[in-house]
Fold Cytochrome c.
Amino acid sequence: MNKRGFLLGVLAAAVAAVGTVFWMGHREYDAPVRVVAAEDGGQQIERGRYLARLGNCVGCHTAPGGEAFAGGRALATPFGTFYGPNLTPDPEHGLGKWSADDFWRALHQGKAPDGSLLYPAFPYPSYRHVSRTDADALFAYLRSLPPAAQANRPHELGFPYDQRWLVAVWRAFYFRPTSDEPAPAQPSEAWLRGRYLVQGLAHCAECHTPRNRLGAMALDAGLAGSLIGGQSWYAPPLTGDRVTGLGDWSRQDIVDLLKTGIAPRSHAAGPMAEAVHQGFQYANDADLDAMAVYLKSLPAVGTDTASVSGPASPALMSVGGKLYEQHCAQCHGADGQGRSPAWPPLAGNISVVAASSDNAVHMVLSGGFAPATAGNPQPHGMPPFGQLLGDQDVAAVVSFIRQSWGNQASAVSLPEVRRVREAVR
């Protein structure tokens, strides 16, 4: 069934449900937020600046080459393209007429000041976890920015997704403004803080949790890895899976990746590189360690199975091996171990052995850099091979690295390569 038929079927089943949905009182995670009870204006703004960086708010609300937080950044999704709105205090186009209560309701209930429902492309299903203290600090920081008189760009959505009233149907099934994940019997302060950041402001689940055909997160598979809809990137599992997740990572490995973009088992790339460059590298060590404590507590769960092709044929492996020796071994090594910190390992790399081959294919086609950070100020880059290698060659070399040096991921098919190539054009 196509998306439109499925949505209309859901709509028919939901008519009665929508009329009975009422927004009950919310509750926040009982998490330490490490902020004094009373702050002067300057302290509150500085804390808001820190939180805005940690959540990489600028990433969705700044167009390439545009004024910071003035909106206009495109977000491609399976339902169309959304554009981040203006968050500066401009009274006509931004938050100039908003109150702190308005901002709080947007974060926790996904509602604009006039009561209209916000599309969940704005990640209020995650921001519902943010405390009022932190929400007020964020708002104070945004109100301190210079106003930018830049009009908000309308979203470009196809029917029926351009019918905003259908958001009420979606919410009836998939959204409650509550935070109900159970905690351990005696959780540590670090675990509570880590959960608060991972599930809330850092909104890790928005990329790393599988979604259904209507874009709702599968909460029974939280942080289990997912293709990022509308993009050619795969967000790997952050759970305890020892092959495709963080099971064999140490807490320090996780902190290093968030702080510097590089770790012994992988380097940040694509959207994660942007999150590190613009956000996580500025986080304090205590917060990064708390996030690592929480992530290391997560058990392994079922992961996405985007790649379905089987083992590569001997002929494909032979071609891939020759291409690897010619183009890749100089940096990543004949043994796939790489040379840290310049070039990441390919053996055991969670982006290489992921359920989806998209990240590896993307890097071969387009190349890229690890993020520039204080801990890695001059990252080495990988050149693009998309113009040099045809689709069959890309499938061969990526299949080779996914099935060498102990890697046991699936082979890569021509349709997979063609789909990614089309997405990155």
Remarks:
- Residues 168 and 369 are 41 Å apart (CA to CA).
- The longest helix spans residues 3-20.
- The two ends are 28 Å apart (CA to CA).
